[in-house]
Write a structure and sequence with these properties.
5-stranded parallel β-sheet, alpha/beta, globular, 21 strands
């Protein structure tokens, strides 16, 4: 049911919502209490330090906390916010100084809003309404996700699938809720002192490579006895826990095998969840991610809530597997190439880096909801393509997707373009005009370059978000609409807020579900895949037989900094295809600024490379493209057409280390 924002008597306040004020300036705290009490909220206490606040939180169980960042004592508001996040209590930050660095630290604690002192009563009440709305949406979203996951797991038990299919379906269902690039499932059998295990490396949106114990031994470059010794030490830990990048160094001292796996596959965060099966078998689910900050308390909480369903499906999957998993081979599990959903939703989103897989995961999670989405990224990263994917996967996909570039609209016409006007509303308005928001009714509107929107229009957009209604220029009454808003910008909105160019309340109304697209220079492993995609696209258009680029050109393109991102790469490949003769592109024309800092220059100040130098470069290029994989399907040995043992010898001879890949 749609709620309406009203400044005087909103339904939220009739319910006497409990709010705790954590503020060390007594005058401000008393003013806040007066405003909130007058507005119908119940202020359950005022604290001036983290210690006092914790006591009140335990005693009063507030539903929202107004939290000053700088408090009395050794701990600050950001420290308290971490506890509030774990307890699922919403909070809004207060501060007289919101510098960009403070915003970055504060954002990591997942607040529901910011208020800059001094603030007006109206701003406070609007911010609280937004905060309660977002917090409730967050709770409902988590419950829906949890119900959907439990439903999927229960259905899995009823399906008559073989072991491999069931395991694959289970790990795919977990992916959207517990992000990972590598998953190891290890079962300790106490009665036999034996174990079964299987690992999966994510290679695409719905694609995985199964790895055996032997594969892990080879990948970690440990001797079998070393691997077993490290495994035995790690087996002693059976508690649920997670470690992000900043705490991994200490964690790996007690988990040596997990360190070896992380080093082998460049993994930077870790979550472990143990499950006790009937018969005292312990299943260890070990999730690893290449992102340095993948895991949150919410992930452990979710695993605990679905533990019963997960235990049941694990028991179902592993029944009949008493002899271990020796029959499991290194194998690629790929989504069926004809998958209609995959082709429809993610067509045009090219990349297998963990950054792009994470973006696709987020699109899959948010698309079915009506939540507002804010897409952040530099120019040329593909923000519009992501917006289209969200719309195509949503229940609104049969209705229009209206695209508006806020930067290209003339300042004197932007309001008319967005909200429309009545006939005679101004000079030149010779007929009634329907605005973009009305055109998008029951569909989606994509506001590109939202950071360019004038301040006076930001107020009206905030009203659309809060009340789902617009007012045409010259109109006599508001017009109700039902529109999902997706916004995008290449600007640093936190900095825009700090400088007063972008409204704080609008920023946090849009920042319900942010999706960050990394620039191409930060995901170089996607460059080779993108090159292949664009060559195929433009060779087909120009009716040329071009199959790829030479290793030298590939090195040039990988080492370029790509200020224009994917758009620049696409234009470069299109031009190169048109100019090229022969099956391989042997030359590309990069901007002159590039030449001073990339591989275009000869190595060692003009010295010619030796055969070994060239061989080392070529092997490294292939290894990077294969993400360090040597043997098996799609491995470097297969591409180079040599035996894995021969490749291992060359790697050793040429001094190639894991750090080089």
């Amino acid at each position: 049911m749609k709620r309406q924002l009203m400044i005087c008597l909103p339904s939220l306040r009739d319910m006497k919502k409990k709010i705790l004020i954590v503020e060390d300036e007594s005058m401000i705290a008393l003013d806040l209490k007066l405003i909130l009490t007058r507005a119908g909220y119940q202020v359950c206490g005022i604290a001036d330090s983290v210690v006092d606040a914790m006591k009140m939180i335990e005693a009063e169980k507030p539903e929202m906390v107004l939290l000053d960042i700088f408090l009395k004592g050794p701990q600050n508001g950001i420290d308290l916010a971490k506890t509030l996040t774990k307890k699922n209590i919403g909070f809004v930050y207060l501060s007289a100084n919101f510098q960009e660095s403070i915003l970055e630290m504060a954002k990591m604690t997942q607040p529901y809003g910011f208020l800059v002192k001094p603030f007006r009563e109206k701003e406070l009440l609007i911010s609280l309404d937004v905060a309660f709305f977002r917090h409730q949406n967050s709770i409902e979203s988590k419950l829906r996700q949890e119900e959907e996951l439990e439903k999927t797991l229960k259905e899995l038990e009823r399906h008559s699938l073989d072991f491999n299919q069931k395991v694959l379906k289970m790990i795919r269902s977990l992916q959207a809720y517990i992000p990972y690039d590598f998953l190891r499932i290890y079962i300790k059998r106490p009665e036999t002192s034996g174990h079964v295990e299987i690992s999966f490396m994510r290679t695409g949106f719905n694609d995985y490579q199964a790895l055996t114990r032997e594969d892990l031994v080879n990948s970690t470059r440990l001797k079998p006895e070393e691997f077993n010794n490290k495994q035995n030490i790690t087996l002693q830990t059976i508690k649920a826990e997670y470690y992000n990048h900043d705490h991994l160094k200490e964690a790996w001292k007690i988990y040596p095998l997990r360190k070896a796996i992380s080093d082998a596959f460049q993994l930077e965060s870790f979550l472990h969840f143990p499950i006790l099966l009937p018969g005292s078998e312990i299943v260890s689910l070990c999730f690893y991610s290449r992102k340095p900050d993948s895991y949150l308390p919410d992930h452990l909480s979710l695993m605990q809530r679905i533990q019963k369903a997960l235990t049941s499906v694990m028991e179902n999957i592993w029944s009949g597997q008493q002899t271990g998993l020796a029959h499991i081979r290194s194998e690629n599990y790929r989504e069926h190439p004809g998958s209609k959903e995959r082709k429809k939703v993610f067509d045009g989103i090219i990349g297998r880096s963990h950054q792009m897989l994470s973006v696709q995961d987020m699109v899959a999670v948010v698309a079915p909801l009506d939540t507002s989405v804010l897409i952040l990224g530099e120019s040329g990263t593909g923000k519009e393509r992501i917006a289209k994917s969200i719309h195509e996967l949503s229940p609104r996909n049969q209705k229009p997707l209206v695209i508006v570039n806020c930067a290209s609209l003339p300042a004197n016409l932007i309001e008319s373009e967005l909200f429309g006007h009545e006939k005679g509303a101004f000079t030149g308005a010779i007929e009634k005009r329907i605005g973009k928001f009305e055109l998008a009714d029951k569909g989606t509107i994509f506001l590109d370059e939202i950071g360019e929107m004038p301040a006076e229009l930001q107020v009206k957009l905030l009203r659309v978000l809060q009340e789902q209604e617009i007012e045409r220029i010259g109109g006599r009454a508001p017009v109700k609409i039902n529109v999902r808003i997706i916004a995008a910008t290449n600007r640093n909105l936190e900095k825009e807020v700090e400088e007063g160019h972008f409204r704080l309340d609008l920023y946090y109304r849009l920042y319900v579900f942010p999706i960050l697209i990394a620039p191409l220079r930060e995901r170089k492993e996607d460059i080779a895949v993108l090159i292949d995609h664009f060559i195929a696209k433009y060779a087909r258009k120009s009716q040329k037989e071009i199959t790829g680029v030479t290793p030298g050109v590939l090195d040039q393109l990988i080492n370029y900094h790509w200020p224009g991102n994917v758009r620049e790469l696409e234009h470069l490949i299109e031009r190169s295809v048109l100019l090229n003769e022969g099956p391989y592109i042997r030359e590309v024309f990069l901007p002159k600024l590039y030449s001073s800092r990339t591989a275009e220059l000869p190595a060692d100040n003009g010295k010619l490379k030796t055969i070994d130098d060239n061989a080392r470069e070529h092997i490294l290029t292939v290894l990077r493209k294969c993400k360090g994989k040597i043997s098996g399907a799609g491995g470097a040995a297969e591409i180079l057409e040599i035996l894995p043992t021969t490749l291992h010898s060359k790697i050793k001879k040429l001094g190639i280390r894991k750090e080089d890949i």
